[in-house]
Amino acid sequence: MFLDNDTIHIDESSEGIWSLVDVLLEEVNDEFNLSASILMKCQTAHSCSLLSCSNIDKSPLEGGEKQLVFRLIDECAKYYKGPHVHKISDDLLKKIAPLIKRRNAVNQILFIPFELSSEFFIAIAFQRNASLKELPQSLAPRFSEIILLSKKVSDMDDLINRLHTLENYVKEVGHDFASSVQSTLPKLNNVIKGLYEGPMAIDKIKEAKNEIWAAYRHASNLGLVVDPNYSITNGNHFNFIDVVDNVLNQYQSEIDERHIKVTVECSLPSLNVWGDDEAIASAVSHYLINAIKYSFGSSTIYIYINDVRSEVEFKIRNKGMKLNRDEYPNLWKCGFRGRNAYERHVNGCGIGLYTIKKIIEGHGGNVCCRNIHEDQVEFSFQIPKDKIFMKKLL
């Protein structure tokens, strides 16, 4: 068997004890006339974690009782590494017996290490009497059934969590669209009522148009978000600087509302790139939206466009809440939102950075984020300018 005579270390379980599995363990106890049982998963030959236990007053992997289970497994494995009926020492039984609810255990236990789906487990069963001299053939399969059930329970829990995430995602998307409509309609209504006339009315209509287009792009992007293998479908040559300028114009009303200033640093009048200009505009838009949302009011957003050899580099910096370094790997995952966003109740649904990453990687590029100084955050991406064969094509 996988156990050996070296010290066996037992870790606390992070999964907890499932009440449903406990009930099944009790049925096994009654069926085979057992006082109590413990079921553990072994990651390696020296590391086990509790899955469940039955008729035990408290988890045997907590506090000082951890060492008792350590001694028990160590003693059984030294005697024989495979499944067997084991007679434990009187000293060890005296220390373990108070943990057993029925208080009628004898010094004879059933030690059952077994393998299931390339994973290792240990079951320990305390007998009520010394009637069993050999292991029943059906006992190990019964423990295996409990393991399989626990896996199904875990899968169901994971599915429920995913559904909750999807529910929150849909609510956030709906909130974004509702906010856009609530912002656009008053402007149009005020123009219709004649509260705005002449150039001011035209400006308000333009703002409403930009907000409608922003909502449209958001809806269009949902198709990209759910596609894990985004590829370029509409490749052509375009001026990258024009794309950035158009995005800034589309979000001018949001910029003005927060009293934010945007400065663009680029020494080139044009920068030709091959790719999907609408998708790149979407990536720039998401970066800009995030910068506006997370910036301090009346601050400045800095945009840098650089021609770096064979690539185009786009950077956007804003003054606002810092990124948590431990969240860096998860920032680009669909639906993920950082602690700061939740704590400060910033609207969003966790799809922007995920969309950006898919678009940029589809263009053969890469994304990056980092904290600058004490109160600035920088997001960036780089894409090849014209290396078509480095990019994914349908």
UniProtKB/TrEMBL annotation:
Keyword Kinase on entry: yes
Alphabetized GO MF terms: phosphoprotein phosphatase activity; phosphorelay sensor kinase activity
Entry's Gene Ontology BP terms: cellular response to phosphate starvation
Family annotation (Pfam families): HATPase_c (PF02518)
InterPro entries in UniProt: BphY/WalK/GraS-like, HATPase_C_sf, HATPase_dom, His_kinase_dom
Enzyme class: transferase
Residues covered by the Histidine kinase domain: 176-387
Catalytic function, reaction form: ATP + protein L-histidine = ADP + protein N-phospho-L-histidine
GO cellular-component term (any): plasma membrane
Record keywords: Kinase, Phosphoprotein, Transferase, Two-component regulatory system
Listed EC numbers: 2.7.13.3
Official protein name in the record: histidine kinase
Organism classification: Bacteria, Pseudomonadati, Thermodesulfobacteriota, Desulfovibrionia, Desulfovibrionales
